[in-house]
């Protein structure tokens, strides 16, 4: 597939890395915010968007679950990216010269042990790849960045240490969004993502989920979040294994409908191989 795939962040961001991994034939389009990446697809400036939804260490990515249903876009694939952190600086700089590193606030604690070992101070930046770009322009030999190898390559920085993250399992899950839904594909394992609101009746959530248990449908994710700041209006986001046309999934979704005020399928897509 040719075309553009939008992502949030600067060139070299982990979302950029996800674009290259999942859609190497598409041109990555950096965007300032998640809303900008979604808008790029809505307006036809891009054909797809790559959006992070959760991280194995830090959980849900803020605002994404709210943005997805409102976007009018559809999930057509998922991708998993291991978050490998590298320390980078200007060419010729030695690690002993580095006094501080800049990175996104979420990234700094993930390399805490390494930074402590070398006595390097962490400083929060709006974007890790953006911090790498700033260092490349600044000429500051005492400041490094924590970012991806791709960020170092793009900005001409020297990698002083690779894979310095404290935990080897740190992985981010991304969703690929498109203007058109595609429920026609079939794979050995399919995923269906949807959002729903339960009716205001006793034990509504318990009853709504009962159909998945009785029909043998595996629910891999269920999260709730408030709508419009209301403590009484709650929406649920769910991932299940299977296709809506599978008999057991169809029965479970039909039963869900009896106890919900609304339900919307956001995407039907093959499970990524990293799911196992």
UniProtKB/TrEMBL annotation:
Enzyme category, top tier: lyase
Listed Pfam families: PDT
Keyword flag Lyase: yes
InterPro entries in the record: ACT-like_dom_sf, ACT_dom, Preph_deHydtase
Pathway, per record: Amino-acid biosynthesis; L-phenylalanine biosynthesis; phenylpyruvate from prephenate: step 1/1
UniProt KW Lyase keyword: yes
Residue ranges of domain ACT in the record: 193-270
Catalytic activity: prephenate + H(+) = 3-phenylpyruvate + CO2 + H2O
Keyword terms: Amino-acid biosynthesis, Aromatic amino acid biosynthesis, Lyase, Phenylalanine biosynthesis
Domain Prephenate dehydratase, first and last residues per copy: 4-179
An example Gene Ontology molecular-function term: prephenate dehydratase activity
Enzyme Commission code: 4.2.1.51
Protein name: prephenate dehydratase
Organism: Jhaorihella thermophila
